Amino acid sequence: IDSKKPTQIFSSHLYATNLMIYLVKDIIRLLSRPDVPGIFLELDVMLLLSHALACKAIVDNKANQTSLEQLSIVHWVSTSILKDLTTPPSISQMSRSAGMNTTTFKKMFKQINDQPMYGYWAAHRMNEARTRLLHTNESIKSIALDLGFSALSNFSKAFKKQFQVPPSFYRKNS
């Protein structure tokens, strides 16, 4: 590293996660700006290395169960699920796109994301609703319908279950 030449840090190759790609892009952006304090660059580099080490630990712990390719595919599926928060993902469709049988896919998804696929999708859906309640002037009904809820009451019930308060109370008091 001191010779300013690329150096292999890990004995095996790791796939880059979305966060790692974002950090690399941010590091490149910061390097192109001479007016940026070095602490920001150092922070991004440390975050990148710590995330790479965390990924390596996951791979090492799951070496007997999960290949790097499978890990990368499940991360890709996890990201693609979040592109459409209006329609619940189909486990059979996602497992087919991952090239795995449904049982293996469900097990790996839960192992990697710490929750089943539908729970992962639903949690991100509700977090998107919460973000929009806080940062937009959209009506609660508009947010509910835009996120695929068939009725405002269904959205309110799901929101209250996730955050322990109704969406209107959350918007007023946050």
Brief sketch in words of this structure:
This protein has helices at residues 18-31, 38-61, 68-81, 91-98, 102-113, 117-135, 140-146, 152-163, 167-173.
Question: If you had to describe this structure to a student in words, what would you say it looks like?
Answer:
It is a single chain. The chain is mainly α. It has helices at about 20-30, 40-60, 70-80, 90-100, 100-115, 115-135, 140-145, 150-165, 165-174. Helix 1 (about 20-30) runs antiparallel to helix 2, helix 4 (about 90-100) crosses helix 5 (about 100-115) and helix 7 packs across helix 8. The longest helix has 24 residues, at about 40-60.
Write the layout of secondary structure elements.
Elements: H1 18-31, H2 38-61, H3 68-81, H4 91-98, H5 102-113, H6 117-135, H7 140-146, H8 152-163, H9 167-173
Extract low-pLDDT stretches.
none
- Helical segment tally? 9
How helical, in percent, are the residues? 55-70%
Strand content: under 5%
**Structural class given helices, strands, pairing?**
mainly alpha
Rg: 20 Å
Distance between the termini: 46 Å
Please give a handful of descriptors for the protein shown.
single chain, mainly alpha, 0% strand
